[in-house]
């Protein structure tokens, strides 16, 4: 039974990675940024959580990083993603996927520079009990 569960979860994560391939709340998220949990499970010390995140126009996730990889799918709007060098490392439109690596050396921010709400479905693959994101200071960029 345990093997079947592990196989099912592994298959679901693999499928989600292919379909989803990112961001979360952080330091501080802009006004009106919301998230809701769609599903959550823990297998062998790893939490798998699927969340829907909505970022209003002109707002952002805040600067942050993650303790495990994330896989995101842009359901609506456009995600503008920036790394700690203040450079854009991607613009992701509706239907796009994004993957965020883990670790404090991958500080980033997700911004909604458009005029419609940005809606993301994000699969978090985190050590059991880890927060969705770890706050990080603005690395010196002229935006928050």
Description:
By secondary structure, the chain is mainly beta. Helices cover 12% and strands 42% of the residues. It has one helix and ten strands, in the order αββββββββββ. The strands form three sheets. A five-stranded antiparallel β-sheet has the order 1-2-9-4-7, covered by helices on one side. The protein has a three-stranded antiparallel β-sheet with strand order 6-5-8, with no helix packed on it. It has a two-stranded antiparallel sheet with strand order 3-10. A hairpin with a 2-residue loop joins strand 1 (34-43) and strand 2 (46-55). The longest helix is centred in the N-terminal third of the chain and has 18 residues, at 2-19.
Short description:
It is built from 1 helix and 10 strands, in the order H-E-E-E-E-E-E-E-E-E-E. By secondary structure, it is mainly beta.
List key phrases describing it.
3-stranded antiparallel β-sheet, 5-stranded antiparallel β-sheet, 144 residues, mainly beta, 10 strands
How would the global form be characterised?
Answer: globular
Main sheet: strand order: 1-2-9-4-7
Distinct helical segment count:
1
Mean pLDDT, rounded to whole units?
A: 87
Decide which structural class fits the backbone. Answer: mainly beta
Question: Residue ranges: pLDDT <50 for 5 or more in a row?
Answer: 2-26
Q: What proportion of the residues is helical, as a percent range? A: 10-25%
Radius of gyration: 15 Å
- Cα distance spanning the termini: 48 Å
Strand content: 35-45%
Per DSSP E runs of 2 or more residues, the count of β-strands stands at 10
Most strands sheet? 5 strands, antiparallel
SSE order, as H and E?
A: HEEEEEEEEEE
């Amino acid at each position: 039974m345990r093997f079947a569960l592990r196989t099912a979860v592994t298959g679901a994560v693999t499928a989600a990675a292919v379909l989803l391939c990112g961001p979360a709340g952080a330091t501080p998220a802009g006004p009106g940024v919301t998230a809701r949990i769609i599903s959550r499970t823990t297998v062998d010390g790893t939490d798998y959580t699927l969340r829907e995140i909505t970022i209003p126009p002109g707002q952002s996730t805040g600067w942050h990083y993650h303790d495990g990889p994330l896989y995101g799918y842009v359901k609506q709007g456009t995600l503008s993603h920036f790394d700690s060098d203040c450079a854009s490392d991607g613009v992701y439109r509706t239907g796009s996927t994004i993957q965020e690596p883990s670790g404090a050396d991958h500080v980033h921010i997700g911004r909604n520079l458009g005029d419609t709400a940005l809606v993301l479905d994000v699969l978090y693959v985190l050590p059991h009990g880890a927060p969705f994101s770890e706050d990080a200071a603005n690395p010196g960029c002229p935006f928050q």
